[in-house]
Amino acid sequence: MLKQIVQRFTTNLEALASSSSSSSSSSRFDVHIKWKHLYHNRFRSMSSIPPHTTTTTTSYSVPKERVDCLVIGAGVVGIAVARALAVKDRDVLVIESAPTFGTGTSSRNSEVIHAGIYYPPNSFKATFCVRGREMLYDYCSKHDIPHKQIGKLIVATRSSEIPKLNDIINRAIQNGVDSLRMIDGTEAMEMEPELQCVKAILSPLSGIVDSHSLMLSLVGEAENQGATFTYNSTVIGGHHEGNQICLHISETKCLKEWKGTSILQPELVLIPKLVVNSAGLSAPILAKRFTGLQSRVVPPNYYARGCYFILSNTKGTPFRHLIYPIPEDGGLGVHVTLDLNGQIKFGPDVAWIDGVDDISSFLNKFDYSVHKDRVERFYPEIRKYYPNLKDDSLEPGYSGIRPKLSGPCQPPVDFVIQGEDIHGIPGLINLFGIESPGLTSSMAIAEYISTRFLG
Ligand SMILES: Cc1cc2nc3c(=O)[nH]c(=O)nc-3n(C[C@H](O)[C@H](O)[C@H](O)COP(=O)(O)OP(=O)(O)OC[C@H]3O[C@@H](n4cnc5c(N)ncnc54)[C@H](O)[C@@H]3O)c2cc1C
């Protein structure tokens, strides 16, 4: 099996090397690189350090390779960044610990294209959500990615909530979100006969997207532009040497087998000119393993699990729009989301959970269980706006975990994008706290990184 993979990889490398300018002619390939193989074969433009060189500041006696751009994590954000860098003709290597792309938070969310309503004006979240939404609709239309601009209603279910709706719409207008309309409960309930509310904001720009198709398309495009995705490979730490960051790489299999009784040694050290730490839930915990990076620049991280329950045992689809209550602490409230097949799911709720140790985090060993007892909290929340919800109509679905930078009862924190100006290490970009609206914002974050850090 390994032989086949190696052969396929070599063939593709040869194809890439021989295609002088037209990188679009190279086919999509599914690369699983063994490290020893990587060491013996060159990426395009990769310059090699003599085989037996050891670092001067560490005791690692392992192969070292220079790379141009390295992206850690193949979630939607890492993939979008890889594509944006590859489009600018940079050589890009993506290192992903899982066996394929998009197995983290990027496949455990509501798949909603947010309009950009809730976030503080001029924040990264507001700016990237508005820009990212425009880019996403455009990209989905051009690349036939399943999506639908179904619109959303944010509802006040009692008159005491109306001032909050006013605050939300004012903020959204400041964020440049167009076409919003405050409507009476009667109008909202005419649009959605199963809905109960006293007033609502109609957001026609909100929609849904098939996130897997999106990621597949972005990966394909990045690869066609010459980027290489390497799965089953984990960045376990790094150090700063001279003016460079050196990343310590291990096969994920070795991490799984590691008993914790010996020092964890990398199998390869990669020395990128530019590295984007887009490891999602693990990004801060990984940054703490970069010796030379001051610990004060790594923000505290918190985890808030959100569970979904699926509507079953109900005739037809009760709603055509996304229905959102007033936001709650830590999340947007237990809302109605439709997927592109018309299935209705409710969620996500908010449960603050403990993290896991660093290696378990890289292996995505978070607690994603959806306890069926939680459903008892869902019924009363949902019946505030959907009073006809029948008993026993909710079944456990799935859960996702929000990579948060503020804890319970603390105000929300913006996305954090750290470059050399913050932490002093040239070429290192840390992405922290990329929670919702990270899916919507992904292409705008990528655009920002490729513009600001590549010039
Ligand atoms: C419950 C929930 C609902 C949401 N709903 C929406 C929504 O409707 N709309 C929206 O816009 N956003 C939503 N979001 C936010 C959105 O899902 C995320 O912002 C986005 O998916 C983050 O993508 P990412 O690439 O940063 O992280 P991830 O998808 O988590 O990707 C990180 C990748 O890094 C890999 N990795 C980790 N450690 C290492 C390592 N050491 N070495 C190599 N690889 C590593 C992981 O395996 C993973 O594949 C939601 C989030 C949650 C939790």
TrEMBL record:
Belongs to the L2HGDH family. Transmembrane segments: none annotated. The keyword Oxidoreductase applies. Its cofactor is FAD. One of its GO terms (molecular function) is (S)-2-hydroxyglutarate dehydrogenase activity. Signal peptide: none annotated. This is L-2-hydroxyglutarate dehydrogenase, mitochondrial. InterPro entries: FAD-dep_OxRdtase (IPR006076), FAD/NAD-bd_sf (IPR036188). Pfam families: DAO. Residues 68-450 form the FAD dependent oxidoreductase domain. Its EC number is 1.1.99.2. Gene3D superfamilies: D-Amino Acid Oxidase, subunit A, domain 2, FAD/NAD(P)-binding domain. It catalyses: (S)-2-hydroxyglutarate + A = 2-oxoglutarate + AH2. Keywords: FAD, Flavoprotein, Oxidoreductase. It comes from Crotalaria pallida.
